[in-house]
Amino acid sequence: MHTFRRSASGWARRSAVTATALAVVGLGVTPTATATAMTDAAPVGLPTQALSTTPAALDKAPGDLYLFQYTHRNHLKIGGGNFTVGGEVYIVVKYNTGKLRYHSTVIAKTQAGMPGGAAYLETNITAPCAPGNNGYARAYDHSTETWSPRLPVAICQRID
After folding, report:
1. Which of 58, 73, 76, 104 has the highest CB neighbour number within 10 Å of its CB?
2. What b/e string do you get for 14-46 counting C-beta neighbours within 10 Å, with b at 16 or more?
3. Cβ burial, residue 134 (10 Å; 0-12/13-18/19+)
4. Is 35 helix (H, G, I), strand (E, B) or coil?
5. pTM for the complete prediction?
C-alpha cells in the first residue's frame, strides 16, 4: 500500500497571512469622497451631512472612522474606532440591495491601543459564511454626525 506525502504547499499558512494582510490594508483605506457617506440615510431625526467642526471633535482622536469584522460565538461581530468617546454609535448591516439586516446603537468606550472611542457589536447574523460579500456594515457617530466607510461583509442566508 502506498501512502501519499502531505502537500508542502502551506495553503493554510498562506491563507492566514493573506487574510491578515488584507485586514491591515483595509484599515488603512480612507473614503475618497463624501458621496459614499450620503448613500445611507442618517438615523431618524439626524442630518445626513457631516459637520466640519463640532465641540465633540475635541474628545476624538484624529483620523477617519473605521470598521472591521470578526466571528465570535458563531456570530458576525462588527468593531471600529475613532468614534467620540462616550458618544452613541449606530451600527447597521445591510444587504448590497439596501435591505436592512441588523442594526443597533452602542456607546463608544476607550480601549488601549485604539484611537478615539472603540465600538463593538455582536449581531445575530450567523458566521462564518461561504465566501462572497453580499452586504456591508456602516457606523454612524451621532456626536459628529459622520458615517464610516462601507465595510463589505458576508451575510449568511438559509437555503431551503
Report:
1. 76
2. eeeeeeeeeeeeeeeeeeeeeeebeebebeeee
3. middle
4. helix
5. 0.62
Q: What is the pLDDT of residues 91-124, one digit of tens each?
A: 999 999 999 999 999 999 999 888 899 999 999 9
**Distances, alpha carbon 150 to alpha carbons 10, 42, 65, 66, 105, in Å:** 32, 14, 10, 9, 17
Distance of CA 140 to the CA centre of its chain: 11
**Closest by CA position to 133, among listed 85, 88, 97, 159:** 97
Q: Give the cell for residue 67.
A: 470598521
- Residue recorded with cell 465633540: 56
Residues (pLDDT < 70) of the chain are 1-62, 160
